[in-house]
Amino acid sequence: MTLHPSVAAVRNAVRRSLDGLDPGTSVLVACSGGADSLALLSATVFEGRRLGLRVVGATVDHGIQPGSDVHAAHVVDQMAGLDVDETAAARVRVQPGGLGPEAAARRARYDVLEQLRAHFGAALVLLGHTRDDQAETVLLGLTRGSGGRSLAGMRRRFDHYARPLLDVSRADTVAACRAEGIEWWTDPHNSDRGYARVRVRGEVMPVLERQLGPGVAEALARTADQVRDDVEALDALAETAHERVRTEDGVELRPLHGEYPAIASRVLRLAAVRAGATDSELFHVHVRALVELAAGTVRGEVQLPGHLTAVREGGRLRFRPTRVPS
Known about the structure:
The chain has helices at 5-18, 35-51, 68-81, 101-120, 131-143, 148-151, 170-180, 196-212, 216-245, 261-275, 284-295; strands spanning 26-30, 54-61, 86-91, 122-126, 157-158, 161-162, 250-252, 301-304, 308-313, 316-321.
């Protein structure tokens, strides 16, 4: 029987991500019950069997929607039905902590996935983001003026995580599920226009496709790959520069003045993160403030996420814990 092309596309993408793993290695697949993650899980089970891998399906219940516990139990049954070696379900409490609902849920999800990865001894955690997700991320970054780091989109691999489907369309994951007889769940949040990503997906992208022709998502995702190469090169240069200027509690500013702005701003960002600033919450506005403080165009202090304060003293930029009023 001829293999459905969408099933083949998903399996080929997963095969590339699993390449090099030794037999007996555990792989954790994050599964929400949507078409993307179920197609990913099905393909991982298929490819994992061929490679002698142990596949664990994991679902995270954020407890945000009514009946989420029932849905999580259903996803566990689905994962077991796809013949995974083991299933896991975890419930998390989403605490905003100054973040928006999406960012807070994402942070809680990654925290629990990391705990599950450690529990099962998984060498790799697979995430079901598709090429369409990547295109939406790039477009949102562009409209928000977030700079190269956002335009680079989601990373294909980082730490113990991989996104095999960034070259696979959402239409292919849906078609793959249909071809394999897998029923999937549609998250109600995916139709809530209160979310910018939903508006981009349902309204902006279709307009771009109609006005500019097909292939917009592919072009945006391709742009992410190209920008990612540039961002990683600049980050590597900044790492080297940081080693030259770093001090025990900050950085020497005089040698930093001779660097290109793209390098200098990255050095200051890196120094802030190394001093304790929260990486995921350190935005362009914070880095811009550090640059201006380092240049002497503004005076005083810069408050950074993670209860960290930056001050300029003499020829140095220093970081210290933010004083909490008693």
